[in-house]
Amino acid sequence: MKDTPSVHFDKSQIPQDTIDIVFLFTVIKDYIWRILGLTMMLTLLATLIVFSLTPLYTSKVSLLIEAETANVAPVQELYGLDSSRKEYFETQFEILRSRQIAEKTVRRLSLYENPLFDETFADANKGFLTRLVLDAKTFIRKSLTFLPQEDYFEMTESEKLESRVGFATDVLMASTRVIPKRNTQVVEVIIETADPKLSATIANTIADVYIDSYLEAKFEMTQDATEWLNNSIQGLRDRLTKAEGELEAFDESNEVVNIDGVVGLTSEKVQQLSDELIASRLKLQRDQALFEKITSSTSSIEDLSRIPEVLNHPSVQDIRRAQVIAQSNVSELQQVFGPKHPTMISANAELTSITESLDDQTRNLISGITTEYRETVRKVDSLEADLKITTTDLRRLTSIDNKRRSLERDVTINQQLYDSFFTRLNETDQVVGFESANARVLDLARPSDAPSKPNKMLIIALSLFLSFGFGCMLAVLLRTLNSGVRSVEDVERKLSQRMLGLITLEPHDKKEDLPVRYFFEPDHHTFSESVRTLRTSIQLLNVEKPPQVVVVTSSVPKEGKSTVSVNLAFAFGQVAKTLLIDADMRRPSVAKLFDLPGYQPGLANVVSGSHSIDECIVNDDEANIDILSAGSMPPNPQELLVSEKFKETVNKLKKTYDHIIIDTPPTQAVSDAITVTNHADSLVYVVKSDSTNSKLINASLSRFIEAGKRIDGIVLNQVDLRKSKSGAYYYGYYDAYGYSSQKNAETIK
Question: Is 0.85 topped by the overall pTM?
């Protein structure tokens, strides 16, 4: 056999993310009767369950939730309620779903006495599986003493009643749906029970309970507000009385008559004294400077007369004008008269008198300036003392005024609070008992004429559809998870090899092998034709030079390789001289199939040289083939197969026979088959249909590929045609010319 790579398909060329529709339809077609059986069984089961279910009747009541209610007194302001917000409606919907409404409904209708809401009745009517699970849990808990055990105690009548009410409430809440209408203030309360009249009654009662609960809550709110206002008013009254008393006591202790006027006058007086003090201090500064100048020890009367305040004095100016006139007169008279002239004497005397008068006037002015300075000092001191006293009085009066204003504010605030709360209390008292509901019933619930659940026809139709889909999925899953090889597609897809032929599964006792001459029985044309088709496929591997030496092997034992080898030899024996060699010297089977004696020499004897070829070959006249059995079992079979003697034996036999079929051991256990292929023209690999794991087969095939051996194809053995409803699975690999009997043809169809 030439060491060339095996022809195989590249799996990478097949898109992995695509869905093979043909494959899916083929699988469904193959499993159609099982799918239909499963579908009918599940649909029948669903039908029985549906018809055993208790029908439920639905009733609904429509409520309009008012956004604003007639509130005479705005008591809601005390609680921060705003009925115009979206959250208000969401809150009302949740109130309708609340356990409080459900429990009030249960108590009003005494639903805990109704069998549909009675815990005892519900326990008695639990399904078989539910009771079985509960009993199993109880048994396990009692058996495993280390687990926490339930404490059993006797309940009082009131506790039993509360337990029944609680159970009925749970059932009612599970049977209630609250559905608000989109973009409206309408909400529907839907009840589902097994009694149509009871459903309508419960729905209407829930609406009434909700409205009554709102009114009760609002009444309680008003009562709470009234009580709170009364308590608050009493406290405010006490605070107001206390504030008024404190103000009155303050006025009496401080002898306050008109504090605002007194404070105003005192403030004006302080301002006046401040202004006078500022003016006096300015005058004092001027007088002090003048006083310091005139009291200087170096100053003469003449210097003092030059002081601006003295010089500019009107009396001094008058005297100075008279002095200037007198001096002018003396100067003129000196031009005319002598010093002792009476006129001169009189003029000088007048000038002297005027000069003395000027000095006297200057001294008087200096004395007046001193007196004025001292008077200014006394005035400044007096103004400072008066301002200090007046400022102190103003501070005291201002403090009294601030304290009084604080007391007046307390009185005013307490008075306002008291008046506001008193007004609110009067409003609340006036509207007690006048409460409007926040909702009204639009449509009352009415008993339903037909059950709403279960929708039997819909459930049965869905069960039929889903069970069929489930059956299809299960079939595809089983086919996908099946690791065996059962079709041409599996050979190509899982093994990446080509299909060379198939051998059909023939009915026989499973404890015994197929009769060795089954190929020649006239009633089994399907089997014989499948073998002939395999023979033809091998011959067509190379038309110019058909394979002469054919090696047959498999992955593991019990795949039927020996049966294929024998029948393939029968098929070749009908057209040419053929030799069948049993190269499986570890577990030989050919001699047993042909009833050869145990001492019959064979291949091992020829290769070892103990016997000649003619002594070992046995002729089968009926099959027209020669047989070379394994012979004596050697301790080292592989050494014989790799020996030069084995090669010479095969070459010698090739000169005598047209076709040589060699049956070799399974490749998963030993590598004898790989060794034998060195002297073969073709390698036929037998795979038991829907049995051997594809991974195991690929592992065995990879050994040949790694050794550089060509695998001509796969022979699918023991194919059960009854499992395939589609002849396209194996078209061209069996009964190609319609030679089968009518019975077998019908079976295949």
Answer: no
